[in-house]
Amino acid sequence: xxxxxxxxxxxxxxxxxxxxxxxxxxxxxxxxxxxxxxxxxxxxxxxxxxxxxxxxxxxxxxxxxxxxxxxxxxxxxxxxxxxxxxxxxxxxxxxxxxxxxxxxxxxxxxxxxxxxxxxxxxx
Length: 123
Description:
Layout: H1 2-10, E1 16-18, H2 24-31, E2 35-37, H3 47-50, E3 59-62, H4 71-78, E4 82-85, H5 86-94, H6 108-119
Parallel strand pairs: 1-2, 3-4
């Protein structure tokens, strides 16, 4: 998810999200301007997003790690936001491009992010 968050942030999109626990990676993302909170609490969602009047132009990306009783997920679902699995969004991004796919149990997002970060212009 961090790779997707950074990708959309690099496109100038407003990016935020939920993670179960803080980590070095989430702190790095926060320092890059990505809003992250660590409690399943609708009140912690970015106010701009919560007060947004048009759910159809907002993309909510989730993973199978989000349980079906997650209140934030259900909030966005009930409000008819555009909810899409991470794999589906990765498909959209890679469509029409030469793609190297990484398979396995661990390290896929990390490996993909490392490749993507190498393509970014130097700061």
